[in-house]
Amino acid sequence: MGIDSMSYCLFTDDFKKKKVKYQDVSPALFELYKKKISVEFADMMLEEGLCTYAEGLFTLVDPRVYDEVLKQYNVYSDKCITLVKNAFGDLFYYDGFECRVLYTSYNEQYSFAGGDAVKYFFTFQLTDAAFLRKNFKKKLFGEAVKQYGKLDPDETYGFIPALPLGGEETCRSIRKVKTIEYLNSLSQAFL
Description:
Elements: H1 9-14, E1 19-23, H2 27-36, H3 39-48, E2 50-53, E3 58-60, H4 63-72, E4 81-86, E5 91-94, E6 99-103, E7 108-112, H5 117-125, H6 129-136, H7 138-148, E8 155-159, E9 174-178, H8 179-188
Antiparallel strand pairs: 1-2, 2-3, 3-4, 4-5, 5-6, 6-7, 8-9
């Protein structure tokens, strides 16, 4: 079975018991998904809603909230749409051609998933244990949940001091922070 004939069911089935819905998809957001990605993706999001998964390991976000953040990191274009943030504030977005991750703590980007990039990202990568371990820092995430508790959808485990300012990627350097404020201040470290 090719990617074109697959639906997003692998993703939704895999995380069915690990999700917490925090917001419905509004008509305006539904139209944005249709315009920038596809009707199929918009339909899946309408059914799923905006959710956190696996106790906050990652969150499906309202992309409009993250447009300014992408602009501050100089990666935004009119075709960009943020899909997911991980627990450490890294952003996974679609640029109109491929899916990309912005490692916000390092101001580095990595692209992956060509072709039907968004479907591939949701169907194969978000359901792949190795991908989640590498890109979502699962071990560190588990330690942070035990020490600091679960995240609200608008929160991130931030490194204090920030990594570009000499911070360490360890549990003792983590604090629960508001995502947008943290990413905005973090982006200033790279100017």
